[in-house]
Design a protein that fits this description.
- The protein is α+β, with helices and mostly antiparallel strands.
- It is about 35% helix and about 25% strand.
- The protein is built from 11 helices and 12 strands.
- The strands form 2 sheets. It has a 6-stranded mixed sheet with strand order 3-4-2-1-12-11. Strands 5-6-7-8-10-9 form a 6-stranded mixed sheet.
- Strand 3 and strand 4 form a beta hairpin.
- Helix 1 runs antiparallel to helix 3 and helix 3 packs antiparallel against helix 4.
- The longest helix has 27 residues.
- The protein is globular.
Length: about 350
């Protein structure tokens, strides 16, 4: 009986290992070319965890079958390190450093998604306590109870000329140029600001790529029509590719070093992330983070869809994500030395 059970388990193990192996192609296959494979990027963390459990299962029984998942995990070690980091960096160094914070504030709980009346004040306190030199906010809403008065420079860009949700770059340093990429037929966008530091000028991009418009709750996903859900995600990934290509073209015309921060609405296993990061950028979480680095409240797995990407030649001093319930996202903070 045990032999039969083990055969079934190994068959499932083989399917999951193959799916994870296929996911390693994700950075090289565009959503427009193969949309089905791009959707797999959302499942990569689950596939890594399941393969790890299969490895442990066969290891306990000292079966050579453990080699299947072990080899697949080793082949994708960069995928594993994007999910979880054993060791991070932490430093109190401030001399010559630049601190960056990105946070999708989800309109400061405008429609009471979270059972709290103090979200604007709590977000204000977090930003004041962490005191980043540059703060990029997505889904910003002009709530009267927010206080970011420590910033003398900022660039707001509201969607479709409305006074609703905005992208905002707050800076302690002088902004000498600013602009918007103005994506068509979407509420998502990218803005940028050229910021003069003490010894250099950098271009900071605040990114909010195409949203999927799906529920993050397991029960809601289980009830959803799978075909409609797939088509919606497929459409948003195709839009993200177009937006990423527009961003990359703009970055290549920049006269300064680029820093890219914000909500990608996609994972570190995706074509979109890989193409943006390939523009001589490094992921601050992978350089100095610790743990899962979760940035989005998704019930199925610890999702990391918000990023701070900095120039390759930059020294990343520290990185942290905040496990605080102030939005459907979590703030991320990095300290770098240019």
């Amino acid at each position: 009986m045990r032999k039969l059970v083990n055969k079934i388990i190994f068959f499932v193990n083989s399917l999951v290992a193959f799916a994870l192996l296929m996911s390693y192609l994700l950075p090289y296959v565009s959503p427009q070319t193969f949309p089905l494979l791009s959707v797999l990027s959302l499942a990569v963390p689950i596939l890594i965890v399941i393969n790890s459990l299969f490895f442990v299962y066969w290891l306990i029984f000292l079966k050579r079958k453990m080699l299947l998942s072990l080899i697949v995990l080793i082949l994708g070690i960069s995928h594993v390190s994007s999910l979880y980091k054993l060791r991070g960096k932490s430093s109190d160094e401030t001399s010559g450093t630049l601190s960056l914070l990105s946070f999708n504030v989800h309109a400061f709980n405008r429609f009471q998604w979270i059972d709290s009346d103090r979200i604007p004040e709590d977000v204000s306190k977090l930003i004041k306590d962490e005191n980043p030199d540059i703060f990029c906010a997505q889904e910003f809403y002009n709530n009267p109870n927010i206080d970011f008065s420590q910033y003398v420079n900022k660039y707001e860009n509201f969607h479709h000329k409305s006074r609703e949700l905005a992208l905002v770059i707050f800076s302690k340093y002088r902004i000498i140029n600013k602009g918007s990429l103005n994506f068509k037929k979407t509420a998502n966008n990218v803005i940028f600001a050229d910021i003069v530091l003490s010894k250099d000028t950098v271009r900071v991009y605040n990114v909010h790529l195409q949203s999927h418009g799906i529920s993050t709750k397991t029960d809601d996903l289980a009830k959803a029509d799978s075909q409609k859900l797939y088509r919606r995600i497929q459409t948003s990934f195709v839009k993200q590719q177009s937006q990423a290509e527009q961003l990359i073209a703009h970055m290549r015309s920049s006269p300064y070093k680029n820093i890219v921060m914000g909500d990608f609405n996609n994972t570190a296993y995706s074509y979109i992330y890989d193409k943006i990061k390939s523009e001589n950028l490094q992921d601050t979480f992978k350089e100095a983070g610790k743990g899962f680095g979760k940035t989005f409240n998704f019930e199925l797995f610890p999702a990391r869809i918000d990023f701070i990407l900095v120039p390759d030649e930059t020294e990343v001093i520290s990185f942290k994500s905040f496990d605080v319930e102030l939005s459907d996202h979590y703030p991320i903070f990095a300290k770098i030395k240019l």
